[in-house]
Amino acid sequence: MANTLKLEVVTPEAVALSEDVEMVTLPGIEGEMGIYPQHIPLLTQLVPGIVVARKGDQFITLAVSEGFVEITGNRVSLLTDLAVNADADEAEAEAARQRAEARLRERSGSEQTAAVEAAVAQSLAMLKGRKRR
Question: Model pTM?
């Protein structure tokens, strides 16, 4: 029985992360999920939030936007629009949130609004990650 999971986080631009980890916590559509090796196969929706993976004594923390998660025994694959290091500076994340909300108030149009709302969600996820630590 294997004691690690292969975690892959893929965005439209690139593979954001590909690591063997011991455990993953992620924000699913029905709440936060903890995944260990030999998890039952599952396909679910990813919501904006924080993904935390434990690898030995260190933790890998990513802020993610919405997407999908596929779990197959010893593999966790996240397909998401955006994945960034959640250890960003809190002041930087707060400034990004304020800029995104200001753009949201200024613009109209469903495509632009969706992009700005995604930026707000990402900034809030980064702030949540910083406060969690």
Answer: 0.70
Token pair 């593979």 is at which residue?
15
- The end-to-end CA distance of the chain, in Å, is 32
In this predicted model, what pLDDT tens digit does every residue of 31-53 receive, in sequence order?
Answer: 999 999 999 999 999 998 889 99
Q: Tell me the per-residue pLDDT of 65-83, one tens digit each, with 9 for 90 and over.
A: 889 999 998 999 999 888 8
Q: Where are the domains of the chain?
A: 5-85, 90-132
- Contact at 8 Å (CB) between 78 and 64? yes
What CATH class is the domain 5-85? mainly beta
